[in-house]
Amino acid sequence: MPILAVLLGGIIGTGLRLGLDALIPHGDAQFPLSTLVINIVGSFLLALLVARIWPIAATWLKAGLGTGLLGSFTTFSAFAVSLVTLTRSGAGWLAVVYLVLSVALGLAAAFLGLRFGRRPEPIEADE
């Protein structure tokens, strides 16, 4: 069951990624905004899911949403290729900006996802 969930999640995540890449296109020497947005959104969503449903979710659901859907939606390889492409195109300063923004905003998005996804603590009755 987890393998099927990863397969189906991967199909959906890849389709979503392709759609966003088509909506926000960029050339080799241009800032890869689509990849940045995709990776930040994915970082937030994965952290939100980990905080909110991972403790109670079935293994197949975690595999389908985490590895499948969000694993195919966000990719380190697209991030790395964008960095190399910008550098080779002579836009080294843009590559540095992209690197710093990707890491900083990705970590911030994950932090916010974990924070928003946190389950509320039960209220204790006063004695």
Automatic annotation (TrEMBL):
Record's keyword terms, sorted: Cell membrane, Ion channel, Ion transport, Membrane, Metal-binding, Sodium, Transmembrane, Transmembrane helix, Transport
Membrane-protein topology: Multi-pass membrane protein
Annotated binding of Na(+), by residue: G71, T74
Modulation of this protein's activity: Na(+) is not transported, but it plays an essential structural role and its presence is essential for fluoride channel function.
Catalysis performed (reactions): fluoride(in) = fluoride(out)
Residue ranges crossing the lipid bilayer per the database entry: 29-51, 63-86, 92-114
Record localization: Cell membrane
Protein family per UniProt: Belongs to the fluoride channel Fluc/FEX (TC 1.A.43) family.
Described purpose of this protein according to its UniProt entry: Fluoride-specific ion channel. Important for reducing fluoride concentration in the cell, thus reducing its toxicity.
Alphabetized PANTHER family for the sequence: FLUORIDE EXPORT PROTEIN 1-RELATED (PTHR28259)
Protein name per Swiss-Prot or TrEMBL: Fluoride-specific ion channel FluC
Organism: Pseudolysinimonas kribbensis
Gene: fluC
